[in-house]
Amino acid sequence: MANILIADDDPNIREILSDFLQKDNHQVILAESGETAIKLSQDNIFDVAIIDVKMGNISGIEVLEFIKNTSPDTEVIMITGNGSIPIAVQAMRANAYDFITKPIDINKLKLVIDRSLEKQEITFNVRIFQSQEKEKGKFSNIIGSTSAMSNVFDLIEKVSKFNTTVLITGESGTGKELVARTIHSNSPRKNFPFIPVNCAAIPDSLQETEFFGHAKGAFTDAIEQKIGLFEEADNGTVFLDEIGDASPSTQLKLLRFLEDGEIRRVGENIPIHVDVRLITATNKDLSKAIAEGTFREDLYYRINVVEIKLPSLRERKDDIPLLAEHFLKLYSGRLGKKIYNISPSALKILMQYDWPGNVRELQSAIQYSVAFADKETILPDFLPSHIKSKNGKKTNYVKNNLLPLRQIEAMYISQMLEKSSWNLSKASKILGISRATLYRKIKEYNIS
């Protein structure tokens, strides 16, 4: 069954074609003018569009051009009472699939539709094959085809082979941990532990014991020996996110580890050799931190043998359709919903938005849209309100075009609670967190 648009200003033709195609188990939507056809094409993805060349103010050729620009995979069949060669040539140049003259031969039309659907199926299967081949590749978990991401892929491939330290920089939400995991999974250490740690999430007083462990009796609460993360990761990789938040004493111990490959547990002076690759990340300007005396310059040069700069999403907007499609499939499956497409008008809004929260914010927006969509296509109405606001760029939360990640999360949780009528069980399921975590975040963000 295909989703077919019929656009013709003759009601008799619309009725005849509709009846015929519905009997052939197709889903049919009718348009009596070019204006209506364009509006329907903004909110729907059609497999086939049958368009009359002459339809008043907006011609069929204009509708054809609009459809091919917004939905290139839709096959468009042009029909007209005037079978002149110039019109046919114009239609074919605009990427029409075929051109049929009136009176319409129903059997011929059926044959053309069947062939167009066969072409689509072949194209789809080729894409599936290419996608599967890509999934077998090294970086299939990172979505992107822009030149900015190609540079990132090149660096990942090069540094994965060697044991050098890597510093990953970029704004929050750009995927720094994902890149670190990809480096590890493509390195000789891939069969050993990958341990990610957010330095900002661990108080300064606990960083040393968490990273390097402690001896029994090293301090009041040290009732037994503790193995640190670096020992746990032996032969593997430690990823320290927000390295700029490492305490001065932790920075010193990291420097010593990088110099001689040895650590010392808190309360012990016995060196322990560990074979660990260190990958770090930050969204801060470490050069500024060095100037301010909060980050060691010698450690900076040790961790920054190779730097991978991740572009913000607004710097690679051409990747938005790929990312949105990926998240659409992901959350449609997780939430058990049959949502297959994002309408051109909704995609236009996504493309216009600045994405201060980067890929993480886009992921949340698609998850939100899937959760509350009641059609098989994501329409603008299903997008989060702050994204579809004026110009799709700014909300009351925006300051200097930057939206703090905490505010994005609070705003997203608040919208989910409103949509679910404050049903905590439903909201927590959609958000992918426990009721206890949701309740804690409601209190933390003072959501009411």
* SS summary, helix count: 18
Kindly identify the CATH topology of the largest domain: Rossmann fold
CATH superfamily of the largest domain: P-loop containing nucleotide triphosphate hydrolases
CATH class descriptor of the largest domain: Alpha Beta
Shape verdict: elongated
Radius of gyration: 28 Å
Helix content: 40-55%
- The fraction of residues assigned to DSSP E strands is 5-15%
Query: How many domains comprise the coordinates?
Result: 3
| Average pLDDT taken over every residue | 86
| Biggest sheet record | 5 strands, parallel
What structural keywords apply?
18 helices; 13% strand; Rossmann fold; 448 residues; Helicase, Ruva Protein, domain 3; alpha/beta; 5-stranded parallel β-sheet
General description of the model:
- With 448 residues, the protein is α/β, with parallel strands linked by helices.
- The protein folds into 3 domains: 3-133, Rossmann fold, CATH 3.40.50.2300; 147-311, P-loop containing nucleotide triphosphate hydrolases (Rossmann fold); 316-444, Helicase, Ruva Protein, domain 3 (Orthogonal Bundle).
- It contains 18 helices and 14 strands.
- The chain has helices spanning 11-23, 34-43, 60-70, 85-93, 106-135, 147-160, 176-185, 204-212, 229-232, 248-260, 286-291, 297-303, 320-334, 344-352, 358-372, 405-419, 424-431, 435-444; strands at residues 3-7, 27-31, 48-52, 75-80, 98-101, 166-169, 194-198, 237-241, 262-263, 272-273, 277-282, 306-309, 341-342, 377-378.
- A 5-stranded parallel β-sheet has the order 2-1-3-4-5, with helices on both faces. A 5-stranded parallel β-sheet has the order 7-8-11-6-12.
- Helix 3 (60-70) links the parallel strand 3 and strand 4.
- Helix 2 (34-43) packs parallel to helix 3, helix 13 packs across helix 15 (358-372) and helix 15 runs parallel beside helix 16 (405-419).
- The longest helix has 30 residues, at 106-135.
- The radius of gyration is 28 Å and the shape is elongated.
- Residues 133-137 and 390-402 have low confidence and may be disordered.
